[in-house]
Write a structure and sequence with these properties.
The protein is of the alpha+beta class. Helix 2 links the parallel strand 9 and strand 10 (135-138). The radius of gyration is 21 Å and the shape is globular. It has helices spanning 4-32, 126-130, and strands at residues 37-43, 46-50, 53-56, 62-63, 68-71, 76-81, 86-89, 94-103, 108-123, 135-138, 143-145, 150-155.
Length: 161
């Protein structure tokens, strides 16, 4: 014969088991919208495009994987990522933050961005120091891997003939 406390204990075990099975799924959903950095400063026309939503790139704006950062002809934008790396965009620039992974406790690192046009400068943070091979910037004509601490690049210009 089962007692009331035995039935309650069994029900609690079932609930705990179900919660433990669902936690990984909740964790995946949470990391998909995890803040990877913030806008530190901006000037002129500067935006963050997230899906169909275009936001003004004001200081403090949170950045997510998949965001497109853009500046107008008079724009500039400075970003700081969670690993303390910095990214600066000059006028007429556009970059997509394709992936970002910074989990030192698990030894997982990565940054992938695609500069479509314009100018940018990057100063590496912890990812660049701990796993420099995990940082890559793609441009329309080249792929840049980080082996040092900083670089600047200009993309999207038509070569003069």
């Amino acid at each position: 014969m089962k007692t009331a406390s035995g039935t309650i204990r069994f029900a609690l075990h079932v609930v705990v088991l179900l919660v433990m099975m669902l936690l990984p799924a909740w964790g995946i959903a949470a990391t998909a919208q995890e803040t990877i950095g913030i806008v530190r400063n901006s000037g002129g026309a500067a935006t963050v495009t997230r899906g169909d939503q275009v936001l003004a790139a004001a200081p403090g704006t949170k950045l997510l994987v998949g965001d497109t950062l853009a500046t107008g002809p008079d724009g500039s934008l400075g970003v700081i990522f969670r690993d303390n790396s910095t990214l600066s965009l000059g006028p007429g620039s556009s970059i997509v933050l394709q992936s970002f992974l910074f989990s030192p406790s698990e030894g997982k690192f990565g940054l992938l961005a695609r500069l479509g046009r314009g100018t940018m400068a990057y100063l590496s943070g912890l990812i660049g120091k701990l796993a420099p091979e995990s940082v890559r910037f793609d441009t329309p004509t080249a792929s840049i891997g980080i082996r040092g601490t900083c670089f600047a690049v200009k993309a999207g210009e038509t070569p003069s003939q």
